[in-house]
Amino acid sequence: MVGLGDTIDPGGNVKLAFPQSRTLSISGAALPTYGVDGLPVFVPVRLQGRETIGRIDECRYLVTLRTDDAYAFSPSGTADLELDTMVGTEATVLIQLEGKPGLAGHAGLADIGANAREITGLIEAARLAGQDRHSILYELELRPWLHRATLTQDCRLFQDMSVVEITDAVLAKYPYRVDKRLAGVSRGIYPKRDLQRQAYETDWAFLQRLWEEWGIWWWFEHDDGHHRLVLCDTMGGHQPHGAAYETLRYLPPDGKRIDEEHIHALSVTSRLTIGRVTVTDYDYTRPRAKLTVTEANPRETASADGEIYDWGDYSQPLAGAHGLAGQPNDTDVEARHFARVQLEAKRCAGLRANGKGNLRGLTVGRTFTLTGYPQQAANREYVVVSCALDIEEIGDRTGTGQTYRAEAQFELLPANEPFRLARSVRKPCLSGPEKAIVVGPAGQEVWTDQYGRVKVQFGWDRHGKLDEHSGIWLRVLSPWQGIEMGATFLPRVGHEVAVEHYYGDPDLPVIVGSAVNAFHQPALDLPDNQAVTVLRGREFQGTASGHVAIDDTQGQIQTQIASDAGASQLSLGNLRRIVRKKGRADARGKGFELRTDFWGVVRALRGLFVTTDGRAGGPGHAKDAREAVGRLTQARELQESLSGLAQRHDAQQLDADQSDVAKAIKTRNDAIRGKPSGGEHDFPELAEADLVLSSAAGISLAAQRCAHIASNEDVAVTSGRHVGLAVGRSLFASVANALSLFVHKAGMKLVAAAGNVRIEAQTDGIDMTAKQAVTITSTTDRIHLHAAKEIVLHAGSTEVRISERGYVVRTAGEHTVHAGSHQADVPQTRPMRLPVTPDNPGRFAAHFVLMEHAGGFALPRQPYRITLDNGRMIEGVSNERGETALVTDHDITFGTVELLAASDPDKVIAVNHAAIVRDIATPYAATAPNADKRTAKIRGKTASTPEQGATSENQQPMFATCDPLNFGLRFHHFINGARQSDVRANRPRNDVVYPVTKAYTA
C-alpha cells in the first residue's frame, strides 16, 4: 500500500518516504530540506495532541522535532532556521501503521490494514525548543484550518439564507475543502431564516453557534497531504475505520499478550440527563398563534423526567429582503427540530465510554466495533468522539533499531445514539442602541408595509448600498400602540434611527427612536425654539408641513394645531404664529383662533352651542346654557305678550298666527334646556340637534354679498327695543298665506320718497279702517278712484253711488252744491282702463329671447331687466329656452332690455332697444330666422340655437343679443334725479352713468 510521500521505482517496488524503522515522519512545503533530493532537515520524535468532534480548542497537536544527527548538521546552522516561513503553512505528520497479524488458517493475510495515517494541520506556532547534544530541538503546533476562523471578526447580515448557505458564504474566504454529510430538517434541506447576524464575532464563533443550534457537528479528515472539514447531522455520516481498526479487542493489562493494537482500559458510564425540552416563540404577524412545542425522549433511568424550557427563536415574521412577499416558514417543523436538537445534545451525554490503548490509528469521527469487554452490552459499535494521542520515538540517536511508545485516550458514543453538540457558544448579548439609516427605492420618501415596518441599513454595514436591497425590515416601537389605536411615526428614507434588540438578541432588532444629524435637522430651529414642544410632519415629495405645538415660553404659553394647507390652524392661549422650521413668529392676540385660507365647516350631529357667556377658569359643565335659555325665555314671553295684543285688536286670529310662532319658540327652548334626570353626570342641554348662538353682549352678522336665513317651519325675530332694516336697493317680501302688521302704540308709516306706492288685492277686497279721520292727498296731481262696478261713498245716512247706470245720491239731509257755473249736457261715456297685471294683460305684447351675439345660441338662466318708457320694470332670469317673461301694455310703448352679469346683478353687460307693438291676440306660426338647429359645448354646458316657431307663450320671438357694441356701450342712465335738460354750460356732467362701459372697464 502506497502512503503519502511514497514513490514507486521502475521495477514496481514501493520506496517509502521514511525508513521502516521510524514510526513518525513529517512533510510540508515550507519545512526546510537539504541536499539535491530535498531530504527533510527535521526528524519528528514525538507527537502529542487531541481531536474532539465540534471543539476547536480541543483540536491541536504538538510535534517535537530534532535535526537529523545522521547527517552531522552543524547546530549553529540548524539553530538559525527561519520560523516565520513555516507559520501559517500546512504540514503533515505520517504515522506508520503495521496492521493486524494474520490469523491461523489465513495464510498470506499478515499486516492487515498496514498503512500510514496522516494528521495534517496549519502550523500555528513554530519555536526553537532547545538543544539535545548535537541536535537542535524544534516544536510545531498544528491546528486545523478552521482555527483561522477564530482569528477573524466581522459584523454582517445574512438575509433569506439557510444555515448551509450562510456556512458557504462565511467559509468562502478560506481556500479549503468542506465535505457536507447533511440530511437537513425536512425533505433534505435546511429552511431559510429571515435574518441571521454575525455580531462582532469571529467567523468560527458565529458558525459554531449556528451549527450547535441547528444540530450540525464537525470534525476533520486527513488524506493526500490535506485535511478537510466534515459537516454532519446524521449518524450515518460517520464512516468506519479501515481494516486494522474496524474491530478493536479489549484486553486488560494483566491479561495475556497479543501481537496487535488493542484497548487495555475501558469504562462505560451512564449519567442522569433530562428527558424533555419545550421551546416557545412569538410571531407578531400571528400574535395569537400557539408556537410552543415539546419534544420528549427520556433515557431509561430513574428521575429522567427533567425539562428544559427555552426561547426557540424560530418564528420568521417575513422580515427578510423580500418582506411580506417572502415565503412563510413552517414553524411547527422547525420548532420540533430545535427542541429535538437540544434534547439529543443532553441525551447523548448520558451514555459514554472512556478508554486507553496503544492505538496509533484511532481516528475521531470514525466508527469501530468493540469486542472482548466483560459487559456484553458494551460490545457494540461506537463513534470516536474524542481522542488524545501521544506517540514518541524511542531508540538510539543514530536512528537504527528504533522502537516507539504510543498511547491513546479516547471517548466513545454508541453509534445508535443520536449525537449533537452541547451549546458552547452563546449568542452575543447586545446592549445599547445602534445607529442605522432608513433606506428605500430611489425617489421614494417612505417605504413601509402593513405593519409599519421600514428598511434600515446599519452604520456598520460595509456591504450595503443604501438602497432597498441593502436593508432589513424592522418594526418601529412606539410608547403607545394598541388595537387600531396609538401613535404611528414612520421614519422616512434617509432618517437616522436608533435600533435596540429584544433580549439583546442580534437577530431580533427593533427601531426605538430617531435622531437628528447634519442632513436631518430638528423640526424647529434650535435653540431659538427651545421652549416649544412640537410634533411636525412634512409633505411627501414637497416642503409643506403640519404641526402640533406646545409653546411653554414663560407668560406666553400656547397650544397650536396647524397645517400649511390653506394656512389652517387652531391656536389656543397666547396667539402667536409658528412658521414651519423657523418656529415662533409674530404675536396675534390672546384667546383662541380657528382660521384657514380654504373652507371651514363646524358639524355636530347632536347639537352645537356657541356662546360668549363666559365661565372664568372654566368651571361647570360644557353645555351650561342658562343665560341663553333665559334670554330665549324672555323673547318667548315678549312674543306671547305682543301676539296677545294683536289678537285683541283683531290684527291676528285668536290662538293662531303669531301664537304658533311663540309655541315653536317654547318647544325649541325646552329642547335647548333639556330635561334633567338627576345624577352627577347629567348634562341634559341640547336634547335635539339645535344650533344655539348666545352672546353676553351682541351678535353681528356681516356679509360682503348676500345673507340667507331659511327655516322649514317658523322664524321668530324678537327685539326688546327696536328692529331696524336698512336696504340699499329693494325690500321684497313674498308671503304664501297672510301678512299681518300690528303696532300697539306709536302708529305705522309707509313712505315712498320716489316712485309709486301700489297696494293690490288681486282676488279679494281691501279694508281700511281708522278710528279718526282718513286723509288721502295728492299734493301735485289728481286722485283717481276706479271700480269696475260702482263707487259707494257713505257718511252717516247719506250715500253716493257712482256706477255704469249713473250718479245717485241718497240723503235725508241737505244737498248743497256751490259752483261758479252749472251745466248739463248730452250723455257721454269714458271707458275705464285697469292696471296691467298677469290676470289683466295689456293689448300689446313682446316676448324676448336672449341670444349670444357671435354664435347665435340662446342664453338660458340669464339675468335681465326690462324697463319701459312709462316707468314699468320687469326683472327676472331667462328660462331654459332663453325667454324672458311676457311683456304687455295697453298702448304701444318702447323701452330697453338690459342683460345683467350673473355674478353681480348690479352690472349691466349689454343693452337692447325694446318695442311692444304686436297685438297679443294675433297668433304666430312663422319660423325663427336661424332655422339650422345647432348645439355646442361651452365650458361644460350645452348651448343651443333658439327653438323653431313661436315662443312658449305662443308669441313672435323678439331676439335680444348680448353684444356690448350693439348700442350698449353708449347707453346711459341719469342718476340722482337728473334730466336731459339739465345742461351745465362748459362743465362736464357728473349725473350720468354708462353701466355697460362701467362693467367692461372695471
TrEMBL record:
Residue stretches of biased makeup (Polar residues): 942-958
Short name of any one Pfam family annotated for the protein: DUF2345
A GO CC annotation given for this chain: extracellular region
Residues of the DUF2345 domain: 679-827
Entry keyword set: Secreted
Annotated segments matching region Disordered: 931-958
Localization (cell): Secreted
Putative type VI secretion system Rhs element associated Vgr domain: residues covered: 538-646
Main localization, broad class: secreted
Ranges for domain Gp5/Type VI secretion system Vgr protein OB-fold: 449-514
Stored NCBIfam families: vgr_GE, VI_Rhs_Vgr
Family: Belongs to the VgrG protein family.
Name assigned to this protein: Type IV secretion protein Rhs
Provenance organism: Burkholderia ubonensis
